[in-house]
Design brief:
Elements (H helix, E strand, L loop, with lengths): L8 H16 L5 H30 L4 H31 L2 H7 L9
């Protein structure tokens, strides 16, 4: 069971690190930190739950035709949840930026 998660270790470590950074930044930037925490938690879940379900289906002796349908449904669901995860990260990148720019009108303009 754990061998199926071995290829996921780098992604799992990045998700754990992202969750930690989000928690450490929670007070200074609560909205982006919350969005990042949610995204990385979802990413962690995707990379543990879906491979585990695939192993469980295989080990319980699911007939090939049912397994094919199940893997297709799991693949679509995983893709949708991965899109949600990326959308959360995208929103987190820009969350609160307009507020920060408006709060400091006397700052010199930044190069873009």
């Amino acid at each position: 069971m754990f061998t199926i998660l071995m290829p996921q270790v780098p992604v799992l470590l990045v998700c754990l690190a992202g969750m930690l950074v989000a928690l450490l930044r929670w007070r200074s930037t609560p909205t982006p930190a919350a969005l990042c925490f949610a995204a990385f938690t979802l990413g962690l879940g995707l990379n543990v739950v879906f491979p585990s379900i695939q192993v469980w289906l295989t080990m319980r002796g699911t007939p090939p035709d049912q397994m094919g349908r199940a893997f297709m449904v799991l693949g679509v669901l995983r893709g949708l949840l991965a899109a949600v995860m990326l959308a959360l990260l995208l929103v987190a990148v820009f969350a609160g930026r307009a507020t920060q720019l408006a709060a400091a009108p006397n700052d010199p303009p930044r190069l873009r």
